[in-house]
From TrEMBL:
Protein name in UniProt: D-3-phosphoglycerate dehydrogenase
Any single Pfam family the record assigns to this protein: 2-Hacid_dh_C
Chain ranges of the D-isomer specific 2-hydroxyacid dehydrogenase catalytic domain: 6-314
UniProtKB keywords: Amino-acid biosynthesis, NAD, Oxidoreductase, Serine biosynthesis
Domain D-isomer specific 2-hydroxyacid dehydrogenase NAD-binding: 108-282
Every D-3-phosphoglycerate dehydrogenase ASB domain range: 325-442
Name of the encoding gene: serA
Catalyses which reaction(s): (R)-2-hydroxyglutarate + NAD(+) = 2-oxoglutarate + NADH + H(+); (2R)-3-phosphoglycerate + NAD(+) = 3-phosphooxypyruvate + NADH + H(+)
Length: 527
């Protein structure tokens, strides 16, 4: 088996390359590439490991014909076009906790540096000025810290600030009152935070809602003498307005680790009084970089080698332990989805997946993903578990996953039903042994078959002589029958025949099969 090939395109702790190699991946490290250089080589790789310096655009993804996974050694994924990755079936994962403590500590360091103007005092002292009377700081004890965003990093900042005896208030629409109590912060609205905070620190992602959250208008509502820290994302603050308020003295200090445009080589903020900045160093500690490198390499290898999925932003999680147990179910689910997608006609707007027996106790999301991957292939060849749910949503397909507690005749069963203009149509399957997917029912008719390779589905009148006729037709065209499965609801009614053949059946032969006496329907299938 060929080894999965991974490209590390940003500066990353060497533990990442070590883990990839140990886990059976080939790895190349190429940092500092231009977008054109990346585009030219990305087609070779199954995995791309990045930090924030590589921007993964739709053009890069379009050129990444083998790519299965993008791993961000860090938190922010605003440098990855996730919709484009999803549409191309590429999993995007990050390491949501590996650098949180480090970044929270950077925010606290910025608060302290602003309170005592340490960078400027240091620079002037080392310049030989000994400017003792030029600096008068403020204590943080008893001051109010306003958190905008109280997620992982915001919560750690809150805990550290409480240790410094600060009063912490937080604006975060998704913070529940219970969690606010748990982390010891007072939940407030944005207006209150702006009016009350002596220090403001930002810890939200950059989204349409948070972009420019500290706009000129909102900055004007802050308390005179406020000090502002941003170790989250550039674009959260109107930098020009902040520069003006620093110049006017309304804002007593600002510390930015991140800028709207990076690298920030020039800015209206540079040179303003009490302005401090660092070049996106929030996550840059030895500990955090080891954490995120190990974690991203483990996660990406889990996916590339074993099919395990964790911390994906565009796919449900599937642990490396669960993956082997779920793999045969996913194979069955994909085949059933594909079968129903090939057989049912018309505008299909609803699909339901029912799980019974042992299947009811499993993680349903990967099974649903696999059914959709099989089913959506009726619309596009390049569908997989990652992009199928997105394509299904785009087409307005209503998807439901139902678990039944009841015990059926099979120890485990998956049923896939689509709503058609003629009513519901369902197929069901089980596992023989622990890992052999088998069809057991097709549109209400019990029939046992492995769904493999090229097959032919026929509905015919249940009358003598038919099997001979179809056998003769296929034989005349040199088509070898591999397996042959029959089922019917009752004698003399409608019968179902499912047979496998060694090669695709030409359209002309299908036409002749449809014309055979007693045949109501003949549909070629491929798995
Ligand atoms: N400077 C760095 O090097 C560095 C390092 C790590 C993380 N970060 C950035 O820090 C930010 C926070 O990371 P995290 O791990 O705490 O993320 P998180 O997802 O745990 O927390 C983000 C919080 O923001 C809140 N939020 C979302 N929309 C909001 C809105 N409109 N108003 C107020 N709050 C809102 C969410 O509810 C959530 O609680 C991210 O942008 C991340 O990329 C920067
Ligand atoms: O979102 C993050 O994890 C930080 O912005 C860190 O970015 P970096 O990995 O480029 O330092």
């Amino acid at each position: 088996m060929t080894k999965p090939k991974v490209l590390i395109s940003d500066k990353m702790d060497p533990n990442a390359a070590r883990i990839f190699t140990e886990r059976g991946c080939e790895v190349d490290v190429k940092t500092g590439m231009t977008p054109e250089e990346l585009k030219a080589c990305i087609g070779e790789y199954d995995g791309l490991a990045i930090r924030s310096s590589t921007t993964v655009t739709p053009e890069i993804i379009a050129a990444a014909t083998k790519l299965k996974v993008i791993g961000r050694a860090g938190i922010g994924v605003d440098n990855v076009d996730i919709p484009a990755a999803s549409a191309h079936g590429v999993v995007v994962m990050n390491t949501p906790f590996g650098n949180s403590i480090t970044t929270a500590e950077h925010a606290i360091a910025m608060i302290m540096a602003l309170a005592r103007q340490i960078p400027e005092a240091n620079a002037r002292t080392q310049a030989g000025e000994w400017p003792k009377s030029a600096f008068m700081g403020v204590e943080v004890t008893g001051k109010t810290l306003g958190l905008i965003g109280a997620g992982n990093i915001g919560s750690i900042v809150a805990a550290r600030a409480q240790g410094l005896r600060m009063k912490v208030i937080a604006y975060d629409p998704f913070l529940t009152p219970d969690h606010a109590v748990e982390i010891g912060v007072e939940k407030v609205d944005l207006e209150t935070l702006l009016a009350r905070a002596d220090f403001i620190t930002l810890h939200t992602p950059l989204t349409d809602e948070t972009r420019n959250i500290l706009s000129a208008e909102n900055l004007a509502k802050t308390k005179k003498g406020v000090r502002i820290v941003n170790c989250a994302r550039g674009g959260l603050i109107d930098e020009a307005a902040l520069a003006q308020l620093l110049a006017s003295g309304h804002v007593a200090g600002a510390a930015l680790d991140v800028f709207a445009t990076e690298p920030a080589k020039e800015s209206p903020l540079f040179g303003q009084p009490n302005f401090i900045c660092t070049p996106h160093l929030g996550a840059s500690t030895t500990e955090a970089q080891v954490n995120v490198a190990l974690q991203v390499a483990e996660q990406m290898s889990d996916y590339l080698v074993d099919g395990g999925v964790s911390n994906a932003l565009n796919m449900p999680s599937l642990s490396a332990e669960e993956a082997p147990k779920l793999r045969p179910y996913m194979a069955l689910a994909e085949k059933l989805g594909s079968l129903v997608g090939q057989l049912a006609h018309g505008n299909l707007t609803k699909i339901s997946i029912e799980r019974e027996g042992a299947a009811a106790g499993l993680n349903g999301k990967p099974i649903t993903g696999a059914v959709l991957a099989g089913f959506m292939r009726r619309y596009s060849e390049s569908v997989n578990m990652v992009n199928a749910p997105y394509l299904a949503k785009e087409r307005g397909l209503e998807v439901s996953d139902v678990r039944h507690e009841r015990e059926g005749i099979y120890q485990t069963l998956l049923r896939v039903t689509v709503a058609t203009e003629q009513g519901d149509r369902s197929v069901a399957g089980t596992l023989f042994g622990t890992d052999s997917p088998r069809l057991v029912e097709i549109f209400g008719v019990g029939i046992e078959a492995a769904l493999e390779g090229h097959m032919l589905y026929i509905v015919n009148e249940d009358a003598p002589g038919f099997i001979g006729r179809i056998g003769t037709l296929l034989g005349e065209h040199d088509i070898n029958i591999g397996t042959f499965h029959l089922g019917r609801r009752e004698a003399g009614g409608e019968a179902t025949l499912l047979l496998s053949v060694d090669a695709p059946i030409p359209a002309e032969v299908i036409k002749q099969a449809c014309a055979l006496e007693g045949v109501k329907l003949a549909i070629p299938l491929a798995f």
